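note to self — DONT lose this again. spent like an hour looking for the file last time. sequence + predicted structure for the chain T wanted, 489 res
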Amino acid sequence: MYHMLKQYLQQKLQQKLSPQQIQLMKMLQIPTMELEQRIKEEMEINPALEEGQEESTEEEGQNQEDDVVGDNEEKNENDDFDLTDYFDADDIPDYKLYANNSGPDQEDRETPLGAGKTFHDLLYTQLGLADLDEEQALLAEYLIGNLDENGYLRRELNAVVNDLAFNLNISTTVAELDEVLKAIQEFDPPGVGARDLRECLLIQIRRAEDKNEHVQRAQLIITKFFDEFTRKHYEKIARRLDLDDQALKPAIDFILHLNPKPGNSMMDSARSIQHVVPDFLLVQENEELKLTLNSRNAPELKISREYKEMLQHFAKTKAKDIKEKETITFVKQKIDSARWFIDAINQRNDTLLFCMQAIVNYQRDFFLSGDETKLRPMILKDIADMVGMDISTISRVANSKYVQTSYGTYLLKYFFSESLSTDEGEEVSSREVKQILKDAVEAEHKRRPLTDDRLAKLLNDKGYNIARRTVAKYREQLNIPVARLRKEL
């Protein structure tokens, strides 16, 4: 069976983003903290892009440009390239462009880098001080390398024995590894080297300096009633130990103050601190709000003078061989790329300011008072309609951007929230409901914490039409555990 192949013409209208538009979309997503690095990357790959301000136009330079263009009109008539668009009146002597005018008050744009020892490095340091022979030290080093970021050994010892035999040709037994692991469990921070949470807590309890009655009860609870403890069935534990709540409470409090993730305690101290750099600065003067873009990490850019002079040189050359034409193509591409990049940076700044100004206008009451309950319900579409842009553009603007106000520094996403209706039909922000929910949980009786049903009834009594499942969703967004896990003695 044969199929006939047909050729025909078809017109199709498609919408495609240009490279410049794609570059702008990527620029909108970059926060101020990362913009400087992005600019440095572009300057490394494009020698036609330089840091600095474009020089002002002078009459002499303009006349000289007109002379160059006039003399070369006939020469460039039959050429493949028109170079006149790449000239400007930038004929200031080089020595005027390379002056060090920095003073003591000039802002330092260098970002400090922090460094510290990792969790595993600290354990290896303690390994050198441990009383272990050469073979045991080798086993300990391998076990430390298998600890996760929380300080736990999640692998079975018999699996580690097999790994040592097949990968490192080291013959050992589970008993030998267990002995070495016990030595690691004596390292700091207490609890490191445990295989589960129960063992981690027991290690810390055994290493407690004061072996008083409460500590002994804590060890008994974790040893015999660990499952009941994790489920907060304190009444059952009290009955089993024949204790009242007042006698049980100190032991429970001691356990709750132990560290369930000993590895993180050292990782946090060794981790570099990254400060939030606001993208916008909002200053309140009387009843006026003045918005500016933080350009701290965004240096001004210009096109390289050397590359412009190269094009001027080629414009004066009548005959062009293949190599010169290839060079002209390369230079033009780099200058075009530099112009696109500078335009993208400028458009990014304009778009960010335009969208942020719309957010400020929409949430004016909040920015004037700092009162969270005055936040209006706001979604991406509200701002998109105000500025006449696509929702995806507003999403890129709000992504990972911060604004510094008189009441603190906020992530832009903080101002976007859903709307809920009250009994009177008034629309309120879900942010307001979350604040009421948070306050209710903080004020609850910890021996009888509020369930989601009771929280929903509390909000309904206040006039907010909200279902139990919505309360559960907001509670999870606030990182508030269920009522059973909030229970305390």
